[in-house]
From TrEMBL:
This is Putative HNH nuclease YajD. Pfam families: HNH. The keyword Kinase does not apply. Keywords: Endonuclease, Hydrolase, Nuclease. Belongs to the HNH nuclease family. InterPro entries: HNH, HNH_nuc.
Amino acid sequence: MPRKPQRPCRYPGCPRLTDGVYCEDHAKIMEQHYEKFQRGYSPGKRYGRAWKRIRDRYVHKHPLCEQCLKEGRYVAVEEVHHIVPLSEGGSNDESNLMSLCRSCHEKIHHERGDR
């Protein structure tokens, strides 16, 4: 059976012909670009194992959403929120953490204009 004709590499300015979308050299570059910009950040890389232990300990002590609890609703925790974000000099101290359901967490970040 005959093979498909080769196509030019899609990388701008590359004259090489290839069977795929990009030539071998540019396929690696575009894969790294995809991992960095298209997939978003990985919480595991940003926070790590130590954060997971702190978070689990805090959720164990505070199993209900603190915002909903103030309004008389009992909703299980889905997120642990930093009151002062780490990027603004906050810490992982319990005094800087708040257990929230996903909707309350999104409301807080929406009001701050973060996401």
